[in-house]
Automatic annotation (TrEMBL):
Belongs to the glycosyl hydrolase 13 family. It comes from Neolewinella maritima. Residues 183-597 form the Glycosyl hydrolase family 13 catalytic domain. GO terms for molecular function: hydrolase activity, acting on glycosyl bonds. Residues 496-509 have a biased composition (Basic and acidic residues). It comes from the Bacteria. Residues 496-518 are annotated as: Disordered. This is Glycogen operon protein GlgX. Its EC number is 3.2.1.-.
């Protein structure tokens, strides 16, 4: 193929066959996208309302110069298609769609604009924000300028799809299928984690290959997490308004292509090499026992509202791909806060999302998904519904239904806050957990009743619908908001670096600066801040449900008070590997917590506590205590000033079984949380002459306790704003000469219970 000329005009006389140095055959309508084989490439693209679709091809060496424009003469079931024999991988491509330009009825067909295939599996190039990328004259002063068609060619300024060979040697790799109840999630950013690591080669920093580097994998394994949740890696767009300010979209919640890995995270190249580099990363993480969960953004695209650019779906079929205002279709329904909402009520956008999900599981081997603003996807014509087409389709899919499915259960539309509202199979980011735990440790007068639900897996949200504690993804911080360190260093957000005069970001954070806004040299405040971080970490990892740790909280990462660092692709957001002694101690504390959780089944149960006896002579599996060492009363539960709470977790009384049906037993633990700003005396329960409590955790100190034993039925002084974990330990004197227990653990706790009830 050597000649550069469009052949669409020739096709008006002859539909198929040889056109000088290129051939065009009818091809097939499925699969959608550009599908390469040794025989050639099949191109297939959906458009319901277009009157003509042109395929534009670009050579590898000149990706901004259109080499061929081919009219797709075949349409089957609203899919336009053709086959080009002998076409090799590496060719760039896009489409142009003809049809009605009438924004007031939702039609925006403009053949002057190159369009990215929604099914492309690789993207080459970066959008140059030339006015031609917009479908209307953006510099026109008319407020209704979006109704006018712009006729300039956007082809030279737009990214292109790449024809790739998808074959890959996985060397026997399969999904890990770590049980959800045993999962510990690490929410992280591909670039942010690796960009500053001194032992990652400079050319690999910030890339998929950098994340797969042994030094990074060793770090994750040593920390103890079981899964990495990658912030968006679908190819996304650098927003024009950020580029104008000299900023970048760091988070990536601005998707352009649902099947293509983000090209800027590839060290190997952007002509399709990023696909294999991503697969290499997944394979390396799997070999280390680490699952890969993707944070996916299917609810909107980078094309924005009626003033946004024309990149792909908007020009291919605006009415089909997006939710439009019913009586005023020049405007978009915006349930996402980004300008548009993908139309999941229409079969073809739904198919695109489902095909994308299957592709990432079957071809890229990812282990699960976290769905950004999942309520927007689950909306029917208006409201969020469990029986939406999207949820029904996922539940019947034999592939997607078997991986980890995590919803961010809210959007910005009416009725969008759906925590607890998703069906069986789904886990959810539990925003109520975050708020309740933050409020308790901040000292808000809310009592401990709601906290008790959150500590035990939020049965009030999930149990009645047949779900289990693993439905609750517990988190205290995430990418969106303060880091854990900043949560206790700032009362107010400090987002001036974003260039929006500090108007952006959430203002209601349940944060507390511990007395001084920002950095301080006051040693008492410094120690208090460290203790508050330890409290939150200990609560997170010892709660029932699935803990999610935000990148860097394990050592105390700061964003200097910025709680909306979406555009800070710099040291503000990146992981800092140069730690102080205090940060090293915090990291060691976090590792200890994760290890404690992993080694004791009672902290990651599959079923909710029930308080019932498993056998006639046994105890229930949980017991709540007030500081006197007695069982919590109704008055205690309703007291909004109650700020201390004890809970006995009876590992001997669990109604839990392993994969072979054998009863699982664990130790008996006592966990005490003191949210008071002063110390509190707490009577340790038990039989004094036999019972000893071994202190395993004390957040009042940065040191991990070593073999400290305390007598039962004696007062233990809880430090202000601290958390403690004890394990029941028997005295050696509680044994006969033959080594048998005089008082068994169960009998001991039964006596303990009798004392409490008396």
């Amino acid at each position: 193929m050597t000649q550069d000329h469009p052949i669409a005009q020739l096709q008006e006389k002859k539909s198929y066959g040889k056109f000088k140095d290129i051939e065009v055959w009818p091809g097939r309508p499925y699969p959608l996208g550009a599908t390469w084989s040794p025989a050639g490439v099949n191109f297939a693209i959906f458009s319901e309302h277009a009157t003509q679709i042109d395929l534009c091809l670009y050579r590898r060496e000149s990706p901004n110069v259109e080499a061929y424009r081919i009219q797709l003469m075949e349409q089957t079931d609203q899919v336009w298609h053709c086959f080009i024999p002998h076409l090799e991988t590496g060719w760039r491509y896009g489409y142009r769609a003809h049809g009605e330009w009438n924004p007031q009825v939702g039609n925006l067909f403009n053949p002057n604009k190159l369009l990215i295939d929604p099914y492309t599996k690789a993207i080459d190039g970066t959008i140059e924000w030339n006015p031609a990328v917009f479908p209307y004259p953006i510099h026109d002063s008319d407020p209704k300028r979006y109704l006018q068609m712009d006729t300039s060619d956007s082809g030279p300024f737009l990214t292109k799809g790449v024809v790739i060979d998808t074959t890959y040697d996985w060397e026997g790799d399969t999904l890990l299928e770590t049980p959800m109840h045993a999962t510990v999630i690490y929410e992280m950013h591909v670039k942010g984690l690796t960009q500053q690591h001194p032992d990652v080669p400079e050319e690999l920093r910030g890339t998929y290959a950098g994340l797969a580097h042994p030094v990074i994998i060793d770090y994750l394994k040593d920390l103890g997490v079981t899964a990495v949740e990658l912030m968006p890696v679908h190819h996304f767009v650098q927003d024009s308004h950020l580029v104008e300010k000299g900023l970048r979209n760091y988070w990536g919640y601005n998707s352009q292509s649902f099947l293509a890995p983000h090209a800027d995270y590839a060290a190997a190249g952007k002509a399709g090499e990023q696909v294999n580099e991503f697969k290499d990363m997944v394979k390396a993480l799997h070999k280390a026992g680490l699952e890969v969960i993707l944070d996916v953004v299917y609810n909107h695209t980078a094309e924005g509202n009626h003033f946004g650019p024309m990149i792909g779906m908007k020009g291919l079929d605006n009415q089909a791909y997006y939710r439009l205002v019913e009586d005023n279709k020049e405007f978009y329904m915006d349930y996402t806060g980004t300008g548009n909402t993908v139309n999941m009520v229409h079969i073809r956008p739904l198919q695109l999302v489902m095909d994308s999900l299957r592709y990432w599981v079957t071809e890229m081997h990812v282990d699960g998904f976290r769905f950004d603003l999942a309520s927007a996807l689950a909306r029917g014509l208006y409201e969020v519904g469990k029986l939406s087409t999207f949820l029904d389709t996922i539940h019947q899919d034999p592939i997607i239904s078997q991986v980890k499915l995590i919803a961010e259960p809210w959007d910005v539309g009416p009725g969008g806050y759906q925590v607890g509202g998703f069906p069986v199979l789904w886990s959810e980011w539990n925003g109520k957990y975050r708020d309740s735990v933050r409020e308790f440790w901040k000292g808000d007068a809310k009592g401990v009743a709601d906290l008790a639900y959150r500590l035990t897996g939020s049965s009030d949200l999930y149990e009645l619908s047949g779900r289990r504690p693993m439905a609750s993804i517990n988190f205290v911080t995430a990418h969106d908001g303060f880091t854990l360190k900043d949560l206790y260093s700032y009362n107010e957000k400090h987002n001036e670096a974003n260039g929006e005069e500090n108007r952006d970001g959430e203002s209601h954070n349940h944060s507390w600066n511990c007395g001084v806004e920002g950095p301080t040299d006051n040693p008492e405040i410094q120690q208090l801040r460290l203790r508050m971080q330890r409290n939150q970490l200990a609560t997170l990892f010892l709660s029932q449900g699935v803990p999610m740790l935000s990148m860097g909280d394990e050592y105390g990462r700061t964003q200097n008070g910025n709680n909306n660092a979406y555009c800070q692709d710099n040291e503000i957001s990146w992981f800092n590997w140069d730690w102080t002694d205090e940060q090293k101690a915090m990291h060691n504390f976090t590792r200890t917590l994760i290890e404690l959780r992993r080694d004791n089944f009672v902290f990651h149960r599959r079923r909710f506590f029930n308080g019932r006896k498993v056998e006639e002579k046994s105890l229930g599996d949980i017991l709540w205590l007030n500081p006197t060492g007695h069982e919590m009363t109704d008055e205690n539960w309703s007291d909004t000033n109650q700020r201390s709470l004890g809970m006995i977790l009876n590992g001997e009384g669990m109604d839990e079984y392993d994969e072979r049906g054998r009863r699982i037993k664990d130790d008996i633990f006592l966990m005490i949380l003191n949210g008071y700003w002063e110390g509190v005396e707490f009577t340790l329960p038990g039989v004094k002459e036999f019972t000893r409590w071994e202190l395993l955790l004390d957040t009042h100190s940065s040191e991990v306790p070593v073999e400290q034993l305390y007598l039962a039925d004696e007062k233990f002084l809880l430090g202000s704003r601290s958390m403690y974990l004890f394990r029941l330990k028997l005295r050696s004197a509680n044994r006969t000469a033959e080594g048998k227990r005089k008082v068994t653990i169960v009998d001991q706790v039964r006596k303990l219970l009798q004392m409490i009830q008396e």
